[in-house]
Amino acid sequence: MSASEKIWFVTGASRGFGRLWTEAALRRGDRVAATARDVTALEPLAERFGDAVLPLRLDITDRPAVADAVEHAVERFGRIDVVVNNAGYGLFGMVEELTEDELRQQMETNFFGTVWVTQAVLPVLRARRSGRILQVTSEGGVRAYPGIGAYHASKWAVEGLCESLAQEVASFGIHVIAVEPGPYATEFAGSRSMRTTDQHPDYDEVRDATAKEWILGDPKATTDAILTIADAENPPRRIVLGHTLPEIEAIYAERLRVWREWAPITRAAFGERVIPGPPHHRHPVWSSSEPAGFT
What we know:
Elements: E1 7-10, H1 16-27, E2 31-36, H2 43-49, E3 53-57, H3 63-77, E4 82-85, E5 90-92, H4 100-128, E6 131-136, H5 149-169, E7 174-181, E8 194-196, H6 204-210, H7 223-231, E9 238-241, H8 245-261, H9 263-268
Parallel strand pairs: 1-2, 1-4, 2-3, 4-6, 5-8, 6-7, 7-9
Helix pairs in contact: 1-7, 3-4, 4-5
């Protein structure tokens, strides 16, 4: 094993981005613990790349199984350098149409599954004082469309997790990167990675009015970007992949405009009293001589 060789742990490696990024890492001589719910889909990788790939059956919603998979990867390769939290799916449906079970399953996979993988790999990365975690959130983690609220909720949750996590682990030499792909011609748009709620006819008009033509990028074009992020000495905390950055910039510009327009109300709502932070974890910008607590 060369000093420059990286060890990857990739979830959702059977298809889509996960498969492409796994193959890209293997082609350049890295080693990959590739996980998927259907491990037979990973057999061609093992046939092609031999011992450089470790196929692992994994449902990321199974927390003990996640811990076992990480342990097997470390036993096989000795370490983990790059973690790619890619497994997930899209749930399409208006918020009112969501069943409790559909919403919980969406969060179990896209959010909690990401948390379980992250928690399992952190002790490995901390021990080496290095590594990076690529959390695949999508542009849907920073913007939202009608008819896909559950998916957005799961990805916005991951984005918030990343913001805190990145600050928590920076001193350990661990980088956390939110990877935010726009629309690509992957299987996400197909039945295997997308589920749809039962549709209420009252929302048909909304569906028709908000339908749009998607310009889909070539998913193979993302591989160089992922390898660059994996190798960068100082990778970005978040990066958009694809052509939608101008649209996202416009959304944030509008948010800033509205916040500034309502700034007098914002400031008036603050008052003059300084509220202390919780006694066990006071925020550095909060201070007060008054007893700790909120009213």
